[in-house]
Amino acid sequence: MTELLVGTKKGLFVLQGEPNAGFEVGARAFAGEPVEYAMRDARTGRYFACVTSAFYGPKLFFTDDPSGEWEQAQGLELPEDAEKPLIRLWTVTVGEEDGLVYAGGDPGVLFESHDGGLNWELNQAFWEQPTRPEWNPGAGGMCLHSVATWPGDPSRLALAISAVGVWLSDDGGQTWRYGNKGLYPRYLPEEAREDTITLCVHNLHRAPSRPERLFMQFHGGVYRSDDSGESWESIAEGLPSDFGFPMVLDPADPDSAYVIPLVADMDRVTPDGMVRVYETRDAGASWTARGDGLPADNAYLTILRQAFDRDGSGAGMGLYFGATSGDVFGSGDAGATWFTAATKLPPVHSVRVA
Amino acid sequence: MALVRLRAPLSELAGGCRELELDGATVAEVLQALEREHPGVKGWILDERGSIREHINVFVNKEYGREQTALGPDDRVHILPAISGG
Question: How far is CA B29 from CA A250, B33, B52, B71, in A?
Fold first, then answer.
């Protein structure tokens, strides 16, 4: 059975089913609360949910059974002298050591846990970046949404923040540097583009079988790096739009990436009233529309940055994404055909395969 | 001592207590005493900087209170979610 963790504006929905047999809501948690992100650590079987109560602030909860009781993780807070409190948690990512888990949040902060996600501490080196006072948020806040680990090597990390670009570390997060060469922020005046750090990365993924390769969805741009994130090359040619949020890679194929284009930053819906996923199998040299079974007319959907995930790899890879319309779509054949997994959910913030 | 009144989910985090008598000369001191007595409440009313969260309303008797609002021994402190959301 496939289990989808769907974070929505009104709680976590656990969808259970199979690609060709339909999905049903198997459990719901945090009813009424915005669940920004939920995932399961396959090493421990532990589920995590980032819940941002409008009243009580952002919290991370964990459980071994999403239909049972959830416990609050500890230590996800900023120093007392911070200008603002922690605003939101955007991602939880499994690290490359036993018990190591990362969490990213707003305002551009990274947390680490070394006990499997029960207790957390702020990454001080990143918190104390000298340029931090100059950082600017994107429309969704100053969100650290992507943590790209290097398979088998816990020392090498890449982070992405909207709108503070890509950050690289070769020492497990003790020191950090930019990885922004080649990014083109056309939302800034021409004379301001070259030296800016206001770089609105929407999503970042590393190809696990060729870890020096990363793919990026930018705020107006799709890029690939073949030098571990030091520099970037546009691969947007052939897409109907280079604007979008989510991204998925096939871990079996380092030349693969999937994106879901939206019209533009001023019109964040699927183009032409059609929902289509675009796939490359040649590292971005060409793109193919994958929409068989997806809404093909009068469909103006918005798919947010954490609302697209995969299950497995290769030709039988599952793909799942959700929209703010409350629809969740899936494919059991790497995007060749699609089905509707759920409708009429609250606006979908995130989708992860458990 | 001020009488602090809580509703769910805060009362659940405080071990099921809907009313507690707590020492403190100000709202902030009483809320800090609440966190010491019931650590599960930490971070839910006051953020990590010691400020009342933006969408939490604290009433002292029938008036809005803030962190530095002075409290007398017979005051009642109500902690409520704001009327907001979507």
Answer: 54, 6, 12, 9
Contact A55 B53 (CB under 8 A): yes
- Taking an 8 Å cut-off on Cβ atoms, the answer to whether B43 and A57 are in contact is yes
Number of H helices and number of E strands within chain A?
2, 28
CATH number of the domain located at residue range(s) B2-81 in this protein? 3.10.20.30
Q: Output the tens digit of pLDDT for each of chain A's 354 residues.
A: 999 999 999 999 999 999 988 999 999 999 999 999 999 999 999 999 999 999 999 999 999 999 999 999 999 999 999 999 999 999 999 999 999 999 999 999 999 999 999 999 999 999 999 999 999 888 888 999 999 999 999 999 999 999 999 999 999 999 999 999 999 999 888 888 888 989 999 999 999 999 999 999 999 999 999 999 999 999 999 999 999 999 999 999 999 999 999 999 999 999 999 999 999 999 999 999 999 999 999 999 999 999 999 999 999 999 999 999 999 999 999 999 999 999 999 999 999 999
Residue of B nearest to A82 (CA): B49
CA B48 to chain centre: 15
> In this complex, is the C-beta atom of A190 within 8 Å of any C-beta atom belonging to chain B?
no
Q: Can you give the residue ranges of every domain in chain B? A: 2-81
Answer for the pair A301, A323: CB distance below 8 angstroms, yes or no: yes
> Please, what are the domains in chain A?
86-340 (2.130.10.10)
Q: Which pTM was predicted?
A: 0.94
Within 8 A of A86 by CB-CB distance, chain B residues are: 47-48
